[in-house]
């Protein structure tokens, strides 16, 4: 998670941690993280997702057992690459070919890959320079395998934003702007989405003087932020539209955002990270993105969104990071979320 978010011109926050068409309802999925030593086997997890009628999942890396279990399940997949593979993926086309050969081709007839993500939250950072070359080589390798219809993208946090308030002033930081401009040009030309991790929770806990809990929890019925002719009733839309504004400023007017992570922790932060608040946030998030209202900047354009995460993961950093799960490792609910709207 490691995100930087600016909600006022003078205040920046450090935060840890085929696609859509207009007037279509958004697709809702879940992140399948595996940083736990007590998690059930993937075959049981995929059966659980099917029982909940969850049809979209995001894998952070190509886990063999998970991909095996997903075959024929009817669950579509966003598949990520390991960050440590980015340099080889970008510098060696044969490495990218082998990656596709091992992790995509064997499953492509029984699994729908909605997107391949070259890395997760590496920009800004030392690995950022390798992202675009990796995306290009993966796209080439997929095309050679007659799988060129699978979009290739990358996943960013809001650390890429140098300003986000009001949303219309959203722009990339000076550090990442050249990289993000090149990535955006690739995405626009390929008609691929940008994957963005959006966490109102972290924005709220670091700026409670300026952000209300109701605004962060989708619990405000009134406009809280007025931005020209646009009005914002929730922080999720404001963050998403700030990224849209940043994309527009580097020529990405046509690039669609997919929210690759969003969620709320249920423990380890007093009266903020509670089961009640996590349940409220995720249920209202799903209801919001399942409709076709879109955001104020992109009305009528639905938002594919992936809830973070299926399980509480005990090998993540201690504190709230271990409590984003919808389920305990024994597969009982932490709280109930309704995925069918």
UniProtKB/TrEMBL annotation:
Keyword Hydrolase appears in the UniProt entry: yes
UniProt-listed Gene3D superfamilies: Glycosidases (3.20.20.80)
GO biological processes: carbohydrate metabolic process
Signal peptide: 1-25
The reaction(s) this protein catalyses: Hydrolysis of (1->3)-beta-D-glucosidic linkages in (1->3)-beta-D-glucans
Membrane-spanning intervals of the chain: none
Protein name: glucan endo-1,3-beta-D-glucosidase
Organism: Theobroma cacao (Cacao)
